Amino acid sequence: MSQKVLIHGATGETGSDIVNGLTEHGGFSLAALVRPQSLQKPATEALKPRGIEVVVCDLANQSVEEIADILAGYDTIISAVAATAQLVQLKLVDAAAKAGIKRFIPCGFTSVSPPGGVMSIIRNEKEKVYQRIWFHHLPYTIIDTGTWFQIAFFSLPSGKVDYAFMGEGNTIFGDGNVPSLMIDKRDIGRLVTRIVNDDRTLNKRIVLHADVLTQNEIREIMESKSGEKLEAKRATHDELMEKMYTARAAHRANPADPRLRFPALSAEYNVSKFVRQDNTPSNARYLGYLDTRELYPDFEPNTFSAFVEELLAGRAQRLYQDKFDFLRKKAT
Hints:
The protein is an alpha/beta fold. The chain is 42% helix and 15% strand. The chain contains 13 helices and 13 strands. The protein is globular. The N and C termini lie far apart (54 Å). One of its GO terms (biological process) is alpha-amino acid biosynthetic process.
């Protein structure tokens, strides 16, 4: 009998890659948990021809008991919700425990970092969900991914890759020599497929990665592949810390404003990765993560070098386009 997997956030950036990976593998009975107001959206409708059942659930208004009845019979629940919706998972965890779910994968899928205020916004929200899982003794796997290739590259003087560029300028932090775990986001789903079929990953933290690169190495790859000399500015660690403190203060003064949340999130990520050096293989081992490069040595992930070739050929995709365009319009 195939494993029954229910995906929360199946049409999002991470969720869609997970759906693709599980569908490509086969051998799963897939369902997507959607809000009533999302039922008629084109992205939801597009799931049905792929053989993915659409399960309607109103987490905000239905009781834990009602949600548990909806979840009953599924083996694994994978949550890949938006960055602004992390705490919505709390009721889902309560219901999953009540329904006897065999494995709950919360919405991790971020760079390696310890709890406790290093990333005071999104990481702390994620950790609240993890703590609820542990409260219930709910079987789990926490999956983090390092930095996605799709948000780690630099712009070029020619503007050739700007169609997929999410940044607001090329900045190298410190000396540019801090290593960082990285992966092509399209490989997330393929590796999740391995993880949900692997008893070694139950009740563990896992980190997915393909490359470990510094900003200087990223720059060198892009210059070599493009034949262009990349223009970049430098920011000291002190400047990055000051930017984070300022962005945090603005967000705390008005936490409901999404235009203030994103700069604070971005600054905290950068301090974690480039000042504290959290997103490294050594720190992942220290924090107890299992590494997919060691778990699945036969898996051949896409490399950053190959991704840059796609990028230069015009075949990459800009992430979160609708959301970022909306926020930029509101800011002008």
